[in-house]
Design goal:
The complex is a heterodimer of chains A (about 140) and B (about 260).
Chain A: H1 3-55, H2 89-118, H3 121-139
Helix pairs in contact in A: 1-2, 2-3
Chain B: H1 2-22, H2 27-37, H3 42-63, H4 72-93, H5 98-121, H6 129-135, H7 145-162, H8 167-177, H9 182-207, H10 212-232, H11 238-262
Helix pairs in contact in B: 1-2, 1-3, 1-10, 2-3, 3-9, 3-10, 4-7, 4-9, 5-11, 7-8, 8-9
Classes of the chains: A mainly alpha (about 140), B mainly alpha (about 260).
Chain lengths: ~140, ~260
């Protein structure tokens, strides 16, 4: 076999291997999106329903519009598990929002895992850097 | 209140569908809709929009075909710059006046209008199996890394300031400057926008700028819209939608600029 044919064969094998690696990680990310995002959205619907049922037919909030609802901010991460009001819709909404925010971090972790497995150290470092940035942002308010 | 929620879901669905159809995050539609239609403060609108962008990214990931795979190696390296830009800009956004944020948003909307216009001008090649294969080929080598990293940081900055994913910067930069095939660039951008938006969203959440009663119905609508958009992509007249969008974006930019200048 000539040198050109050999290099073409090697390049073709590398391309196929890249394609397979991408497919594998894309399937894992799709599964993560289904496992995390879909339940989070179901919880969101439930929490909205409970909030609506508890406040109906009374108007919520004061001021010009219904959107001036001062009491409906998200619960800080540090207080999420120290609060006694686990059944409040606000708690469930905060948890589901945090689950959605965490989904990209899960994707980065999947990329990190794949790169650790294939020993692509530059990508491992990049993934760790991105995770550190996300963690810094999450802890910034505390 | 129920009517407002339903309206928010509807606005989110429209933003998610348009975002998935046109390759933009939903943020570019959500922030003006939430501020101009619902009269919400811009920071609350940006917070809700960021959650919407994550929902769009998740929705597209759920609905997309497994063959349309992102280059995660390229994405994660560019994301270092993008997420850093998003984090810094999110802190800065907390210190800026709503008027300044509105003006920045108007500029970003105009840039998006130009991007959409240049995309609409390109003739669409016929969809053949070979053409689809070429969109996702893997035998390329990314070039011009410094330019790619700089523009990724800029996209991240826009995300932190205006609640967008920055896909309208990432896709053209990867495609035209870094020599990445268009299909791979789009899939990689979708992988990246979720992470960029999450970096910004963590700061907005910590600051209390995410109102659950706004973010939750919007995210629901966006997710449903993004799944619908990803599935309807081939059946709708995307070129016509794109032309309508350019007009809409210019009107929105003018309104946001007016709001920024006159309160």
């Amino acid at each position: 076999m000539g040198l050109t044919s050999w290099s073409k064969l090697t390049a073709s094998a590398a391309t196929e291997s890249t394609r397979r690696a991408r497919l594998r990680i894309s399937l894992r990310m799709r599964a993560a999106a289904r496992i995390i995002a879909v339940p989070a959205l179901i919880i969101m619907i439930g929490a909205l329903f409970v909030f609506w049922r508890d406040t109906w037919p009374f108007p919520v909030g004061v001021g010009a519009t219904e959107w001036t609802i001062a009491s409906t901010t998200t619960i800080p991460v540090s207080e999420l598990f120290s609060t006694e009001d686990f059944l409040a819709p606000n708690w469930w909404m905060s948890v589901s929002i945090l689950a959605l925010i965490a989904l990209p971090a899960v994707n980065v972790t999947l990329v990190l895992w794949e790169n650790l497995r294939t020993r692509r150290w530059l990508d491992v470092a990049a993934a760790l850097g991105v995770l550190a940035i996300l963690l810094f942002g999450a802890l910034s308010g505390h | 209140m129920l009517l407002n929620w339903l309206l928010l879901v509807l606005v989110g669905m429209t933003a998610g569908t348009m975002g998935a159809l046109l390759g933009l995050g939903g943020g570019i539609f959500l922030v003006p809709a939430l501020t101009l239609i619902f009269g919400l403060p811009i920071r609350v609108a940006v917070g809700a929009s960021l959650i919407g962008v994550i929902a769009t990214s998740a929705g597209v990931a759920v609905a997309s075909r497994p063959g349309s795979s992102a280059d995660t190696s390229l994405g994660i390296r560019l994301e270092l710059a993008s997420a850093s830009g998003a984090l810094i800009a999110s802190f800065l956004a907390g210190k800026m006046s709503p008027a300044t944020l509105s003006l920045i948003f108007a500029t970003i909307v105009l840039a998006t209008a130009y991007y959409t216009y240049s995309k609409a001008r390109r003739a669409r090649p016929p969809v053949t199996e070979a053409a689809v294969e070429a969109l996702f080929r893997t035998d390329y080598k990314p070039t011009h890394w410094p330019v790619g990293l700089a523009f990724s940081a800029l996209a991240g900055t826009f995300s932190g300031l205006a609640g967008t994913g920055g896909g309208f910067i990432k896709v053209p930069v990867m495609y035209t400057m870094m020599d990445i095939p268009l299909g791979v660039a789009t899939a990689t951008s979708n992988f990246m926008v979720g992470i960029t938006a999450a970096a910004s969203a963590t700061v907005y959440y910590s600051r209390g700028d995410i109102n659950p009663l706004v973010a939750v119905p919007t995210a629901l609508g966006v997710f449903i819209g993004a799944v619908m958009g990803a599935r309807l992509g081939r059946k709708l007249p995307v070129d016509t939608l794109r032309k309508m969008l350019i007009v809409l974006l210019i009107i929105v930019a003018a309104q946001m600029a007016w709001k920024g200048l006159h309160g």
